Amino acid sequence: MAFNQEEQNNENRQHQRRLYNPYQDLEIPVQKLYQLPTQPEYLFHEEAVHQRRSWGENLTYYTGCGYLLGASSGASKGLIDAVRASEHGDTIKLRVNRVLNSSGLTGRQWGNRAGVIGLMYAALESGIVKLRDTDDVGNSVAAGLATGVIYKAGSGPRAAALAGAVGGLLVGCTVGMKHALKRYVPV
User: How many beta carbons lie within 10 A of that of residue 154, not counting itself?
Assistant: First the structure.
């Protein structure tokens, strides 16, 4: 009996409490109460001049983007291969199983390859920027060239040279398009 009485007293105390809202008496909308800056704020002048991600942020960004792009394109390729490999007498369960297995396998393989390429590119680019102490297009192109060469080094000198040329050309085109978009497309 005493236990029920305590429980009832606790419930009464909870009902008597009122939640505090600090903005209830203000006639200012809550959204306009804080005026946050729209541009980044820097503590030191050197940070404002040097607008570049850190090496850790680059490492995470390029590896993650590479893996995501590789996994999604690999899963799409696996889906197409599984649909082509389906036979006339297959049941729905068998077709779905084939699609899931093929998409998962190819997506995982391509994602890991692209993630490793992104990891190597980020590390090489950060190293070249630190070595040269400048930040320009040459660093990115050199990192793309070196990434291609290192990635395909085990396949022989011809494959490594071709992969290096493709890597340098791909990065050069990407950086060129990025600069063109910044210049000609108002954002």
Answer: 8
